[in-house]
Amino acid sequence: MHYSVSRVSWEHAAPLLKTVRERVFICEHRIPKRVEFDRKDKQAIHMLVCDDHSQEPVATGRILPNGEIGRIAVVREHRRQQLDRLIFKGLLKAAKELQLKEVFIYSPLDSVEYFTSNKFYPVGSVFMEAGRPIQQLACPVEKIKSKKCYLSH
């Protein structure tokens, strides 16, 4: 399979970005729509991956100007293609262009061990969001390993 990876703005690509995030976060993970889509989308840099054959959007993620990486989503049928790596690499490149020293994520507890093994460290205490326990994790940009990145809301 072949894919196209693009850096996009919310204003130009919202319908495509919403398609992926609705399928993954709202339908699969049962995140309420009012939680999934927020005002931060307009200020974020988004990555969008489309299947070259079908032209369908299949993966996305975003980074905010403050270094928050999130909303990484890959539709189920394409998860074995490691598209999350492409998204993460694109977001890391954007972090470097923004001259950020550190990035952070809000991770479900079952993914914390993965991120801590890749140079992220916990910040603050665990909190609940949309009925799920979440831990904030941070990492200096120069220390990030851009291997596999689990779905991050």
UniProtKB/TrEMBL annotation:
<protein>
    <submittedName>
        <fullName>GNAT family N-acetyltransferase</fullName>
    </submittedName>
</protein>
<feature type="domain" description="N-acetyltransferase">
    <location>
        <begin position="3"/>
        <end position="153"/>
    </location>
</feature>
<dbReference type="InterPro" id="IPR000182">
    <property type="entry name" value="GNAT_dom"/>
</dbReference>
<keyword id="KW-0808">Transferase</keyword>
<dbReference type="GO" id="GO:0016747">
    <property type="term" value="F:acyltransferase activity, transferring groups other than amino-acyl groups"/>
</dbReference>
<dbReference type="Pfam" id="PF00583">
    <property type="entry name" value="Acetyltransf_1"/>
</dbReference>
<dbReference type="InterPro" id="IPR016181">
    <property type="entry name" value="Acyl_CoA_acyltransferase"/>
</dbReference>
